UniProtKB/TrEMBL annotation:
It comes from Clostridium hominis. Mg(2+) binds at residues 172, 192. Its cofactor is Mg(2+). Residues 345-428 form the OCT domain. It is found in: Cytoplasm. HAMAP family: GTPase_Obg (MF_01454). Residues 1-158 form the Obg domain. Its main location: cytoplasm. Its EC number is 3.6.5.-. This is GTPase Obg. Residues 159-331 form the OBG-type G domain. It comes from the Bacteria. CDD domains: Obg. InterPro entries: G_OBG, GTP-bd, GTP-bd_Obg/CgtA, GTP-bd_prot_GTP1/OBG_C_sf, GTP1-OBG_CS, GTP1_OBG_dom, GTP1_OBG_dom_sf, OBG_GTPase.
Length: 428
């Protein structure tokens, strides 16, 4: 089974909470606060494993959660950091944000790693909030929340040479002839339902990887059949070997097939269409009129393709010439990373705690409702029943500009301010 796309959910570990504790020992009745910080949550990290060739593992496991950080404790003991979670993927895996379908990262090299979800930072213990005027804080900071995101993994084969052409033109036969790969071969359309890879080794050339891409039909670039899934795999190839059936035994015209396939490549990607091609007229052993090949070659040459070969994969006639030409061309074609347009790249938004203010008007007084992630975090860090904690609460509101924002909106003495379930009267 070949799995080349997978939808998964990843979640990092939340940071541990800071502790609210006080040192209490014999002969030390007022030892002061000694709450330790919470531990950092584990991150979720993608790493390339060259031993993997499919995304099959993600068919059975779709949720990945890293370990949370431990909570702080007394005696200024810090919580344990959560373990990072490493997810192994095949080389050539593209990670997309599921909602926007934009590319987050391209893991196309042997040692590539990428932190896809960072663990939450641990919260500070109450000993970190000591000041000369606040010597016994009864509050601590909660850990930062975990990051959670839904991803689409997409595998694009890493092959030097891609075999393209209509179904049943002999691509699988050629691959089995020149490599150790053993794809299923039969006289049926769409025999190949998954890409097959093999390593080509021949005397006088450097070895290279060849991929037999399943047959492409008209409308493939619009998603007809399995077109888009198939076209995806040849984006990384440096050279295309375009195979056509020159024999005409099935009533097809080799030149028309050649033009149609190139039109699909161009619709899908101009860069893919512009990739160097070797044109192979296969099944020449069943061709009884050489004029047919010469006419085909002339038309293809007029389109700007000068590498045209007559071959029979079944009898191996002409196969060596094609492979040596491919090996020679690969030495002149540089290895390039997959080109991802800027508009398709995912831009990570800066994670900030924000707030919004709305006004609820009444005859007696107005209520200013403050909501947002900033409010949630602030209220989880303070003890509203403790005087020192409330002073810290008001200090944060002032430092973060919340009070200035309320004044700009026209708050008056006696109006109410509500943050979630906590409400207080504003006094100038």
């Amino acid at each position: 089974m070949f799995i080349d796309r997978a939808k998964i959910l990843v979640k990092s570990g939340a940071g541990g909470n800071g502790a609210v504790t006080f040192r209490r020992e014999k002969y030390v009745p007022l030892g002061g606060p000694d709450g330790g910080d919470g531990g950092k949550g584990g991150s979720v990290i993608f790493t390339v494993d060259t031993g993997l060739t499919t995304l099959l593992d993600f068919k059975y496991k779709k949720k990945f959660v890293a370990e949370a950080g431990g909570n702080g404790s007394g005696s200024k003991c810090y919580g344990k950091d959560g373990e990072n979670l490493y997810i192994r993927v095949p080389m050539g895996t593209i990670v997309r944000d599921f909602e926007s379908n934009k590319v987050i990262c391209d893991l196309s090299h042997k040692d590539d790693t990428f932190i896809i979800a960072r663990g939450g930072k641990g919260g500070k213990g109450n000993c970190k909030f000591c000041t000369p005027t606040r010597q016994a804080p009864h509050f601590a900071e909660p850990g930062m929340p975990a990051e959670e995101r839904t991803l689409m993994l997409e595998l694009k084969l890493l092959a030097d040479v891609g075999l393209v052409g209509f179904p049943n033109v002999g691509k699988s036969t050629l691959l089995s002839t020149v490599t150790a790969a053993r794809p299923k071969i039969a006289n049926y359309h769409f025999t190949t339902l998954k890409p097959n890879l093999g390593v080509v080794k021949a005397e006088g050339i450097n070895s290279f990887v060849m991929a037999d891409i399943p047959g492409i039909i008209e409308g493939a670039a619009e998603g007809v059949g399995l077109g888009l899934d198939f076209l995806r795999h040849i984006e990384r190839t440096r050279l295309l070997i375009h195979v056509v059936d020159i024999s005409g035994v099935e009533g097809r015209d080799a030149f028309e097939d050649f033009v149609k396939i190139n039109e699909e490549l161009k619709k899908y990607s101009v860069k893919l269409w512009d990739r160097p091609q070797i044109v192979v007229a296969n099944k020449a052993d069943m061709l009884y009129d050489d004029e047919v090949f010469e006419d085909f070659k002339k038309k293809v040459n007029e389109l700007g393709f000068d590498k045209v070969f007559k071959m029979s994969a079944a009898t191996k006639s002409g196969v060596e010439e094609v492979i040596k030409e491919a090996g020679k061309m690969l030495t002149e074609i540089p290895i390039m990373d997959l080109q991802i347009p800027d508009e398709e790249r995912y831009i990570e938004e800066e994670k900030r705690f924000t707030y919004e203010v709305e006004i609820e008007e009444s005859d007696e007084y107005n209520t200013y409702v403050v909501t947002g992630s900033f409010v949630d975090r602030l209220l989880s860090a303070v003890n509203i029943h403790d005087a020192d904690s409330l002073r810290y609460f008001h200090k944060v509101l002032r430092n973060k500009g919340v009070l200035d924002r309320l004044r700009e909106m026209g708050i008056e003495d006696g109006d109410m301010v509500r943050l979630n379930d906590f409400e207080f009267e504003y006094i100038l």
